[in-house]
Structures are given as C-alpha cells and as structure tokens.
Known about the structure:
single chain, mainly alpha, Vanadium-containing Chloroperoxidase, domain 1
Amino acid sequence: KLNPSFVGIALSSLLAIALWASKRLGVCAAEGSAWGSARPLMKVIEVSGHGIPWLLGTCYGLCQSDSSAAREVLLNLLFALLLDLVMVAVVKGLVKRPRPTHNKMDMFVTISVDKYSFPSGHATRAALVCRFVLRHLVLAVPLRVLVVLWALIVSISRVMLGRHNMTDVLFGLLLGYALYSVVEHCWLSPATAPALFALW
Length: 200
C-alpha cells in the first residue's frame, strides 16, 4: 500500500506542475504577453462558447421552429444548457478556486460565481454541445470535424487567455461529457413531458 503522505506529495507535485504549465501557456493573458496580438481573436472564441449566445439562439430557434422534431431537439438543448449553468455554478460555489493570478477580469458578461475558476464553464459547455450536436444533427463529415475542433479550441483558449488552469478545463470537459449522458437519460419528449410541449 502507498503511504498516504507519499500520495499527498505526489498529488501536490502534479498540481504544482499543472499550475506552472497553465501559467506558461497563458500566452494571450494580456496585450503584452507572448501572443498578445491574438488576444482579440481568443476573446471572440470565448464569446462563441459563452452561455448567453447559446441560450438566446436556442430560445430564438424554439420560437421560430414549425417542426415538432426540431422543437423537441431544441427544447432538450435548452434543458442541457440550463443544466450546465446550474451544475457549473454549484461546483464553482463549492470549490471556490480563485482564477489564475495572471487573468484579466475582462470577461464577457460574468456573474458572482464567475470569480471562481473550477471548473471551466466554457469547456463544460463545449463538450456538452459538441456531443449533443454530433448526436442529434445530421452533418457532413467536414462539419462534424469542425464541431469537434470548435470544442477543443474553446477549451484551449481558456488556458491561453489565462482564465483557467489546465485542471479546470480538463474537469470541465469531463463534466460536460457526463452531463450529456444525463440529458439523454432524461430526454424530454411529448410522451414524457406533454405539458411542456403544449407551451410550444
């Protein structure tokens, strides 16, 4: 059996390495950083993974859709996005890990729990939306590849902008992947939630 103190030291060492690597990879954390000129592009990518555009777009699609199949998919996407927001907020509130010291607090539309770092909500959302889109939309192979690349780029941008440590992003990706399974298990349909569908 491993000595508990040895395990603790090993975990602390791995965490220290992750923090060091995260700071080294924060190449767009400020205008004067190594890749500071790419910061505006990284911030556009940041907005593409933010919850508000996804929520507004999904609600707009629900209001405009005249297909019952499309409404079912969009309603479940809305459920997935709301579940994601709640779970990330709960975990951030429990863990209360501060943002990296090199992060500039100039993020697009933040709320109180956004001062915390663990997990990355953008990474969680990217993994969740990626799985959802690949499962429920019929896309050509190049578009499927683009969806996966988008999820990866959004996640990597969190470290490059200095918003998160690598462990925040990795856990976020795992959480988003798992949350999609919850959405599939609790899939809303006219049979399981007739009152909800009657609203639309």
